[in-house]
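[Target chain]
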Amino acid sequence: MEKAGRFLRTNTSMTQVYRSLRRMEQSGWVTHTVEPRPGAQDAKRYSVTDAGQDEFLSRLSEPYQPPSIPGSPDFFAHLRFRASFLGLNAVLDLLDAEIAYRRKQVVRNRHRDRTEWISPTVEFNDELTSTIMEWEHRRGVDRMDRHVEACVRLRDRLAAGEAPGHDYPTLIRRVEDLDEHEREVLLGEPAR
């Protein structure tokens, strides 16, 4: 979790991960085995059960509910998992929902009254605060516009049967295809 997707999510508390895994195991979605590690705490290796796979696919197939922030890690996780497990039509549906939701946000918020009505009880710099708030708004406008444009381009290219990243080498490699050095570097497994 510290290596894969590092820039696509916020920091993860391992305590929360293990709590989630425990709840998932209680629900019958995962099982674990214990692997002894000489000189270190034993490791738990988790595996998804058939019931866990069914639950994952069921949740993944639910209608997409866009998160409040455009381009959030939740969006990218949904996009990636739908591409991996549900296919093109599910990706197009997700992109359609994301684009429509963000366009509604733009209509609702782009030109709203951003005047702040406050009555501070301590010294307060109105001018500097207004400047920073306007800067934040303009950054948000730019981020939103770029996100929507990127989603529209991706959607159009996928719908036309084009591969947006066709000029990049494939990034997917199966663990069993890694050589011993790659396994050690990428997975932290000792070379045999």
